[in-house]
Hints:
It contains 5 helices and 14 strands. The protein is of the alpha+beta class. Among the domains are: about 30-240, Beta Barrel (Porin); about 355-460, CATH 3.30.1330.60. Strand 12, helix 4 (about 405-425) and strand 13 form a beta-alpha-beta unit.
Amino acid sequence: MKKYSxxxxxxxxxxxxxxxxxxxxxxxxxxxxxxxAVGLHVGxxxxxxxxxxxxxxxxxxxxxxxxxxxxxxxxYFNSVWGVKAQAMYGNLSGANGDIxxxxxxxxxxLNAVMNLNALVLKGKQKDRxxxxxxxxxxxxxxxxxxxxxxxTVVATYGKVGDENWTNEVFIPMDLTIKYRLSNLxxxxxxxxxxxxxxxxxxxxxxxxxxxxxxxxxxxVSFNFGGxxxxxxxxxxxxxxxxxxxxxxxxxxxxxxxxxxxxxxxSNLFDKDNxxxxxxxxDGSGRSMDIDxxxxxDNMDEDPFTAKGAKVDAxxxxxxxxxxxxxxxxxxxxxxxxxxxxxxxxxxxxxxMDEAFIPSVYFAFNSADISAANHQRLAxxxxxxxxxxxxxxxxTGSADPIGSEEYNKNLGMRRxxxxxxxxxxxxxxxxxxIETKSDGENNQFAKGRNDINRSxxxxxx
Length: 460
C-alpha cells in the first residue's frame, strides 16, 4: 500500500510541475499559418452498382457523363490533421441493357482529413508547393431515382417534383492533390468514392450490391485565417523545423571543427575565412592591424606607425620630402633633399646635435633589415652624404626575453646589420659608423617590446 501511495504522490507532483510550465509557441505552430480553406469543385458523377454509368458489354449505353458540383470548408488543426464539411449536388444515371435510371443527387458529409506530405521529412531547403490529402468520414445522401425499361418509367424512389427524397447513409473516402498557386489559392485535383449503405440510389433495389458513386473533380480552394504573408499550414511540417534545427547543429559543429584558412579560428567564429597563410589574426579570425593604419600586419611593412598617420599601400608612413620625419609630425613640409632637420622636421640652423635621425626596428629574435626600414636607412644615408664629416654611433638593443648574454649579442648583430646596409647599399664609409650593444639594459618603451627591439642612431 505504501508503494502505491508513493507512486500516486509522484504522479501528482509531475502533474503539478507540468501544469506550472509556460506554454511556448514555436515556428511550427498552426497560428503562424493559414488554417482555414474554402473549396469549390466540379466533376463527373459515376455510378457503380446494378445500373452503372459505364458498361463494358453495352455499346449502346457506353459512358454516361453526369456533372456534379461541390463546396467544402476545412479547418486544419495542424499540418497533419483537419476536419472538412462538404456539400454537393449533381445528377446520377446508369444502365444495364434496356434498364436505365436517372436521379438528382445531393449529399453532405463530415470528414477527418490527413495530410500525407506532412509525414515526409524534407527539410526547409526546398519550399513545399504540393500536398496530398486523404479524408474519410460519414455523410447523408438524397436521391429521387426513376427506373425505366425501354424508355418507360416503371418505378420511382422518392417522389419526383416533391420534397420527399430517399435518404441514404454513406461513407465518403477522398484523395485530393493540391498545388499551391499562391499563399491565398490552391489548385485541387481529386477523386472521391461514396459507399452507400443501401441499394436505392440507382432505382434498382434488391440487386446484388449496395450502390457506390465515384466523383472525379477539379477545383480551387482559398486559404485564410493566418498572417497575411503566410502559406496554408498543409505546406509546413513540424518535422521540417526539427530537421532544420538538426541540420543547423550539424553545420555549426562542422564549422566549429573546421578551419578552412588554417588561422587557428574555427569557421563558426571566423569573420574572414580567407586570411593568407601565416597571417596573425584576432579572436574573430580577421588579420591583426596593430597600428590601425588599415593595412593588415601580414602585409604591413611598418606595423608600428603612429595612430592617424597617413601610410602608403605597404603600410609605411608617408614622408613626402624624404627628411625622415613622416608627414603627420612634419612641421616643415617640402624641405630640400639632404637638409638636416630636428624630430619635428624643421631645418636645423645650428649644430648637428639637434638633428633627427630615425631608428631601425626589428622583428622578434631577428637581425634582418625589413623593407620598411630601408626608408629610414635612406634618410640616414642622405644625412651623412650631405654632411661628410658627420660620424654616427649605432646602438643595438633587445627586449628582455632570453638571457642577458644572448640579448647582448643580438643587440650587436642588429647594430652590425645597420652598418652593413649603410656601407654596402648606400655607400657610406664604414669608418664613419661605430657599433655597440645595450642588450636588454636600455628598455626605451616599457611594455612595448616591439619598440625595444631596435637600433638607435646618434651623432658621434
